[in-house]
Amino acid sequence: MKTDDELIAAAWDAREMAYAPYSKFHVGAALLASDGRIFPGCNVENISYGLTNCAERVAIGAAIAAGARSFEKVVVVADTAQPISPCGACRQVLAEFGVKSVILANRTQKVTFSLEELLPRASTGILDRP
Ligand code: THU
Fold first, then answer.
1. Torsion region of 81: left, alpha or beta (phi above 0 gives left; psi -120 to 50 gives alpha)
2. Residues 25-46: pLDDT tens digits?
3. Active-site residue among 6, 16, 45, 56?
């Protein structure tokens, strides 16, 4: 089983790959699948700013493309005074794939939330249909 520290290290490594020439704000993510695989993500910006993909959604896309469908947690890191927090779009995408726990870290701090805390009642009655 992967430890949170391993996941956090993977997220910092992923952050090194960030393509963020416009904001210059580099974000890394590491997504833990239920089968133990770790999928890294970094933000990928675009000259058409609205096409930017956040690190979290890049990690989800890589994982889905590799055949993972079940997830435990995601780590998101940035070099900020306080740990950053996922945007609303990413919260919804994390909910789509049942990511249970979200760990947010900077160089010195780590805070953990359930996805339910960050996005209460995400698609209740739709995503959890029988
Ligand atoms: N960003 C992420 O990748 N994840 C977050 O949780 C917050 C924001 C990116 C998007 C954009 O490339 C840059 O950070 C500034 O918002």
1. alpha
2. 999 999 999 999 999 999 999 9
3. 56
